[in-house]
């Protein structure tokens, strides 16, 4: 069993708002055993993988982290590593699959973020969050653009030696501004976020409001945190 299974099984249970005891009872196993499965201490058999897939109404591929779609295997993580089929995939196909997968993760996750911003309905918050995203795109564009040193730099007004530091500094300022808005410390006071407009968010709530987009967000969170843990 891979490392994705324990995280995904735990996430699905929490989405449903189920206690470990309740899920274990309905799945016909002990709470201790389900806890071991969710922590990755023990590996379950294929029969249980099928059983829990039916229970949460997802595909086995999704449970195993092989697909970003809960119900089909349209974009499989295995396709990006060349292990998705016996005959293998050529390098260009693997790159195309990886590009499609990551584009789906990012675009779907951004859609959820902007839908939440629309619900909060605070112009200044939307502006600041948008600024942060735009700077991120700008930084990556310049990084990719600079891979070929023959590309003309006239497209940009800030010289290559400065842009990365200044862009990161701007993102730090934007984060501070967002914190100010959320803490009610913005000036003027009318810019502050109305707490009554802030929606309740949880895996279950997000899945209900964005059933098609939520899996991408959860995979983005998982993949990002895995990379972050390697720095700890």
Structure overview:
The chain is mainly alpha-helical. The protein folds into 2 domains: about 5-65, 434 Repressor (Amino-terminal Domain), CATH 1.10.260; about 90-230, no CATH class. Helix content is about 60%, strand content about 0%. It is built from 10 helices and no strands. The chain has helices at about 5-15, 20-25, 30-40, 45-55, 60-65, 90-120, 125-145, 160-180, 205-210, 215-230. Helix 1 (about 5-15) crosses helix 9, helix 2 (about 20-25) packs across helix 3 (about 30-40) and helix 7 packs antiparallel against helix 8 (about 160-180). The radius of gyration is 22 Å and the shape is globular.
Summarize the helices and strands and which ones pair or pack.
Elements: H1 4-15, H2 20-27, H3 31-39, H4 46-56, H5 60-63, H6 91-120, H7 123-145, H8 160-182, H9 203-209, H10 214-229
Helix pairs in contact: 1-9, 2-3, 6-10, 7-8
- Report on the biggest sheet: none
- Termini Cα gap: 25 Å
Unreliable stretches (pLDDT < 50, length at least 5) are 73-89
How much helix is in the residues? Answer: 55-70%
Gross geometry: globular
Q: What is the average per-residue confidence, as pLDDT, rounded to a whole number?
A: 84
Q: Proportion of β residues?
A: under 5%
Quick one: how many beta strands?
Answer: 0
Structural class: mainly alpha
Radius of gyration: 22 Å
Element-by-element helix/strand order: HHHHHHHHHH
């Amino acid at each position: 069993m891979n490392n994705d299974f324990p995280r995904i099984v735990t996430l699905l249970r929490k989405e449903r708002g189920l206690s470990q005891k309740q899920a274990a009872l309905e799945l016909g196993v002990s709470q201790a055993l389900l806890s071991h499965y969710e922590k990755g201490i023990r590996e379950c058999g294929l029969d249980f993988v099928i059983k829990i897939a039916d229970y949460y109404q997802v595909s086995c591929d999704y449970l195993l982290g092989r697909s970003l779609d809960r119900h089909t295997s349209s974009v499989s993580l295995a396709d990006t590593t060349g292990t998705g089929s016996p005959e293998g995939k050529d390098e260009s196909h693997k790159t195309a699959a990886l590009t499609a997968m990551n584009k789906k993760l990012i675009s779907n996750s951004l859609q959820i973020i902007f839908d939440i911003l629309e619900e909060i309905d605070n112009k200044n918050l939307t502006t600041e969050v948008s600024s942060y995203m735009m700077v991120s795109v700008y930084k990556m564009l310049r990084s990719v653009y600079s891979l070929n040193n023959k590309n003309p730099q006239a497209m940009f007004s800030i010289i290559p030696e400065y842009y990365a530091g200044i862009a990161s500094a701007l993102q730090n300022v934007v984060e501070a501004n967002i914190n100010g808005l959320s803490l009610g410390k913005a000036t003027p006071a009318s810019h502050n976020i109305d707490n009554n407009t802030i929606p309740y968010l949880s895996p279950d709530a997000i899945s209900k409001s964005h059933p098609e987009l939520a899996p991408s967000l959860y995979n983005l969170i998982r993949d990002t945190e895995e990379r972050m843990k390697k720095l700890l």
